[in-house]
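Annotated sample (chain length 392).
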Amino acid sequence: MKDLKHLIYFENLLQEANNELVQQAVKEGDKALGYNCYYIPEPLLNLPGCFSSRLRAPNCSSTDVASYYMTTRNCPYVRAILERAVEGGYNYLNALFGAECCAAMERMEEHFSLIDPVKNKDFFTTIIDPPLKYDDNAIDYYKAGLKLKVVDELHKRGVDTSEEAMKAAIEDHNEISRIITEIGDFRKLENPPITGYEFHVINLVSLTCPHRLIKPYLEETLEEIKKRKPEKKFPFRARVVMVGSEIDDPEFIKLVESCGAMVVADRFCFGSIPGREQIEIREGENAFDAICRHYLETNLCARFMSGDKIDQRHSTMERLYRDYKADGIIIENMKFCEFWSYEKVLGSYLMINERNIPCCTIEKEYVVGSAGQLRTRFQAFVESLEIKKINS
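Output written by the structure step:
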């Protein structure tokens, strides 16, 4: 296929958190608001004069300093984030809005206050305690936490948190989500005009760059993909759904696709499922209520322990497998990720034994270092999917 016009530009934007669009927005007076987790609703960080910045640590080669504070037996993602903060990679931030989605994440976020790595006089950190289930009481608790730790803190600093401002933030979110979803839906085609790697890059820039600055590039890319001619023959040997924990390295998706499996759906942290659904303000709701209800309702984090949320995670896996015409599912967990190590075992058992869906499970570091071992696993999985096709 012909190269996408802005792909190299998008790839360059992802080389550092403080990329040129972030720098431009900060220079123009916008507040940069960092976050790590889906529990922090993106629209609340995109109120007037603000932009959201989901934190990554691209090209992280060492976590020695962070490991001193957090030990090496801890999530490599959170260590990489803290390391990058110590290096000065997040000095552009005005705030970090954290969530106790796991003990490792909370500990990392606490260190943003304890050791003061962000050299910005306006910087502050808050952490919410998100609920473990989804019901009316959980929504009320979630709303109270977000009101106290996010909305009120922004209001104190002069940010417009009115109903009109939140409705505008929802409209902005829905427009970005419409573009990303429309691009992602091309992956459902028999011979898509986009690869999983390209989509992951596009979705990542929508999470890490100011919306008002990245949106024109996304709109142009959507129109380009609509007219893009795919390869004459589908260039991959299989189609897979990627499910799992934190994946923000496009090179990991590229590795999977180099082994012959196109990643047709991205059900992982930093993916578009969930994340790029439309927020609807229902009857009787104000904008803040709608945001909170939507994010708790669509959240598929392995931290949720209630039966309905566990069932939701597994039914979503099966739905994506059917909707995107996949041949199998890859379930990934970050090394030392307690929640996803459990979910990986349970999810793969259910998919294989109760729903007859082929699964491959892997554990990885934050930065793909042992590519040889992963490549061997992916190649073997692709071969097994081909054999299943032949025998069916």
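Annotation: The radius of gyration is 20 Å.
Annotation: DSSP finds 14 helices and eight strands in the chain.
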